[in-house]
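A note on notation is needed here, since sequence and fold are reported together in a single record. The reader may check this reading against the record printed directly beneath this paragraph.
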Amino acid sequence: KEDEKWHLLKMDCLMTTGQYEKAREALDEGLLVNPNGIRLRLAGADVWTFNNDPSRGKELLVEFDDLVQYRRWRYRDPMNQIAQGRYLLQLKADAREVLDELLLPVTQKSPNVADAWLAIGELGLAKHDYALAAEYFDQATQLEPDNPAGFLGLAQAWRPSDLEQSSAALKTTMDLNPNYVPGLLYLVNDRIDSERYDDALAFIERIHEINPHHPEAWAYRAVVAHLLNVPEEETKSRQEAFAAWEGNPHIDHLIGKKLSQKYRFAEGARMQRRALTYDPSWLPAKLQLANDLLRLGNSEEGWRLADEVYAEDGYNVVAYNLVTLGNDLDDYTVLHRDGFILRMDPHEASVYGSEVLDLLVEARSQLSSKYDVEVAEPIFVEIFPKQKDFAIRTFGLPGGAGYLGVCFGRVITMNSPLTQSRTGSNWKSVLWHEFCHVVTLQKTSNKMPRWLSEGISVYEESQRDPAWGQSMSPEYREMILGDDLTPVSELSGVFLKPASGKHLQFAYYESSLVVEYLIEKYGMDTLTRILDDLQMGIPINDVLGRYTGDVKLLDQEFADYARERARQLAPDTDWEQPLLDAGADLEQWREWNASHPGSFYGLKAEARMLVRQGSWDEAETVLNKLLDVFPDYRGSDNAYSMLAAVARGRGDIERELEMLEKSAELQSGASDVYQRLAELASDREDWPAVIRQARRLLAVNPLVPGPHRLLAHAAEQTEDHAAAVRSLRALTQMDPIDPAETFFRYARALDKDGQPEMARREVLKCLEEAPRYREAHQLLLELVEADAEVPADTDQKEENRD
């Protein structure tokens, strides 16, 4: 067994350095010394495969199985038991059984054998069970702190949930062995994700210095060539990747997976189909193809493939999640209009589904013409009432808590307002943002960097409604004037690895500011030409250089522009952060403001305390100073909101109304402001104002009855029967407090809107709830009598038909 260990080590060294023929010779030598060695046979299967003879590799695995079957007693030691587990997993045996019967027992009986912990960690990664992987890789690193394999496994396991821990584990990996090929491959993958293609190629060169034939390195080189639009290099690199093993399904799977991560789902799907021609049962390619098809809108085949993967591998977490979600989606309501296919929870569809379609039709009308795009149909939109379901549909796994919506080109997935009601998000602005992605992604055939796609979408939000999107804030000002501004040429990397949630939001804002700068300096026509060039496959930095002179010059000019914009934000304001703790009292804030006239933070804090204690005159004085230095502050604690509180405290309704309206214009999710404005408008019987505020409320959360009640009442007062029908229909779906009254009003609105059949149905529901409802009986009688009225010539017409 010791001889076997050293032969295995020799083979591994030769395979790592690409000396595949010598590795085969070392295998033969090892088998002469260890004719019963199953570990040699397991490793030897790969050796023969990379000598372009996978059939001989399969023969070794048959020998492996025969030896274990007939001499099981010989292979009960930990290392051979681990080898049996790896062998069975290659054969697609039940992963849970392999784990329970072979691998876990080794960790219990021989807890100091690191290979068992590594094997279980690798199994967790393969099945997307990252919590399991992290637990077992961590134990492996404690047992073998000088082995980079365990730390690289930790980096991979932590990547989806904790980038800081992942980066620390990767650093340890490369510190232990700067030439560790799996670690270098991980770095290549990371640099491609962040669009640092020169760095990716540099790491590939380092791998080639170690192993000039490494298939994954060549596959990654093909990916970079594709993304840089160098087709000859892409073809050559892909051919080199197959040099050692002509039927390697991993090559096209890897290429396709990376292309799909760049939103090139059609190209990615084609590569997965290629991979499956080499091995039709290869599950990684089949699962990736399922995801690609679902993102392309080919749902029928996508869900079928997910079912097939789960049937063959019940431990695969992504497959299980997709199959479970697919079954749930069968119960969703599907709405169609003008090329849009909208899938929603049945209750939500009945409440605001038509509003979703209205906004989508409007967005297509405006944005398609603006960007000169004929959007391909159908467009699929799916809205999920559970954040977990949104994440699974979008990413395959739970998570993604910071995302409100995602667009893949022809498919939009989005969180329901129900999941975002506490955050004050505006679902209309989110949907507008995502549909803008449909336009720009289709215009470029998905060949655009993420920062530009996000920047245009955020920019177009604010064009549709000044309260939507993002604007310069005190926090962003500080980040721009500090060290957080990213060069334009490196912006996509910020989305991949933001330092914090705050930095991710800032990346969206900075991207929109770049778009604003490009339009301001070079014009809208130039932006559309940039998108046209991207569609041709020209790399973004080359495109930008074509129109701005040089991308490095653009980096500097934009930095100057952004910093000037930041400096011009309330230029008379004192932006110094107060040196006061959270428990500072009113007198301390007064002292601070006395020595720092125009302090944004100081004035805001002092005003907040004065409002809280009801000192209206003093509060108004401080708030007017705050307005003088920064009138456009969009936070929920803006000066207008506090001045409205002052006016309300004094009983000055006119002033309160004026200040609330100014506050509302600055915010897209201020439900409390909209609610108060609606109440005041209702008291004044200003029905157009009630309608305006109710619609603002519905854009934040259409799943609560209050705004619908306001809108229904205002519509009835203004005799807007169609609007009354929509609101009252929604209220009937919301377990109304007085169902009879709601059904009656709905029936009356339907009748006035020219829908007598529907009106009769709803008035009968009213009478089921309240059989003695006299007005309902009267309405029913009117409907029946109207239906009974027949034109005078009807009988003659019927006789003629006879």
In short: The CA atoms of residues 589 and 606 lie 6 Å apart. The two ends are 100 Å apart (CA to CA).
